[in-house]
Amino acid sequence: MHGHRLTTRARPHAVTPLAPGARVSRAPPCARHAGEEAIFLCAVAQELACRECLLTGHAAPADCVTVEEAGRQARALGAIRPAPLTLADALPPPSS
């Protein structure tokens, strides 16, 4: 978390650590529909969508998966790796 504060943009806000295995239960708000949570990812547009987006045609339901499913698919493909616990975990092992 200390590294997070090194970037200029990140300094003004606080980071609250989650317990291992904890999940964020609140989805981000939809950019198009006030009060709606963006719980889908449109594979074609590569943007978040809400239920209203799917109903009104902003995103085709066949092209969307839930954000949770998108995360599972990305992890299965190796596109997302678990975050290292410490800086030492992130560094390659020393060469002999």
What can you see in these coordinates?
- This protein has a domain at 27-81.
- The mean pLDDT is 76.
- It is elongated.
- The chain has helices at residues 51-56, 67-77, 87-90, and strands at 40-42, 47-49, 64-66.
- The chain starts with 39 loop residues before the first strand and ends in a 6-residue tail after the last helix.
- The protein is of the alpha+beta class and 96 residues long.
- A 3-stranded antiparallel sheet has the order 2-1-3.
- It contains 3 helices and 3 strands; from the N terminus they run ββαβαα.
Helices and strands in order:
Elements: E1 40-42, E2 47-49, H1 51-56, E3 64-66, H2 67-77, H3 87-90
Antiparallel strand pairs: 1-2, 1-3
Total helical elements: 3
Q: What portion of residues is helical?
A: 10-25%
Class inferred from helices and paired strands: alpha+beta
What is the terminal separation in angstroms? 30 Å
Q: Overall pLDDT, averaged?
A: 76
Taken in chain order, the helices and strands follow as EEHEHH
Largest sheet strand order = 2-1-3
Outline: elongated
User: How many β-strand stretches?
Assistant: 3
Biggest sheet overview = 3 strands, antiparallel
Radius of gyration: 17 Å
Beta-sheet strand percentage?
5-15%
| Model regions low in confidence, pLDDT < 50 over at least 5 residues | none
